[in-house]
Design a protein that fits this description.
The chain is built from eight helices and five strands, in the order αββαββαβααααα. By secondary structure, it is α/β, with parallel strands linked by helices. A five-stranded mixed sheet has the order 1-2-3-4-5. It is elongated.
């Protein structure tokens, strides 16, 4: 079984979620259970689509991905992935269970990268490219984002703290799925990923 990025060891959210009646949680590498008797089956997603696990039909099998910046602790935000045929009762049960586990839910369609990765990865890649082009130093870019935009940290310090190799994996998966230039992994993340091999 692969490691869960949404529920690292010691994180109480998984136990709280599994304690909710009628909810099954499928972590990476585990097989889907027989959905009979469950209100919702929640499959933890990486960068892939829910359809890779459950087909295109929808029903009670839904995807979950908790936002996490690399190796940082996961945030309380969970992207709840639905399909056109997802049962409204399953979506409602999943939302209630996730909220009861202390998590905040954002609904999204079944697409690679979902909401946050698709919004953030091009911005992070741009910041890394700006460093390579000499537009500004890391300190100046991070300071500008903190003071000018009110962010708690800057994009480069966030990527370095979480691990550039994680950013590379997310960007590469999105670039493969969509081919959009903004998702093409920036040089520094490519180097970081190769150095970890």
């Amino acid at each position: 079984m692969s490691t869960s990025r949404s529920f690292p060891p010691g994180d109480p959210a998984l136990d709280l979620l599994r304690a909710q009646p009628g909810i099954a949680v499928v972590l990476p590498g585990a097989a889907l259970p027989d959905p009979a008797g469950f209100a919702a089956v929640l499959v933890e997603l990486g960068h892939e689509s829910l359809a890779e696990h459950a087909g295109e039909e929808g029903g009670i099998v839904l995807g979950i991905a908790r936002w996490r910046n690399g190796d940082d602790a996961p945030s309380p935000l969970v992207e709840l992935v639905t399909q056109k045929g997802s049962a409204p009762a399953a979506v409602a049960a999943a939302r209630a269970a996730l909220e009861a586990a202390g998590l905040q839910v954002a609904l999204c369609d079944d697409q690679p990268g979902r909401i946050l990765d698709r919004l953030l990865r091009p911005k992070y890649n741009a910041a890394l490219r700006f460093l390579d082009e000499g537009l500004a130093t890391q300190a100046d870019m991070d300071l500008t984002c903190r003071l000018g935009l009110g962010y708690p940290d800057g994009p480069v310090e966030r990527l370095l703290r979480g691990g550039l190799h994680h950013h590379h994996a997310a960007s590469a998966a999105l670039f493969e799925a969509f081919g959009t230039p903004g998702y093409a992994p920036a040089r520094r993340s490519v180097v970081a990923a190769r150095r970890r091999r």
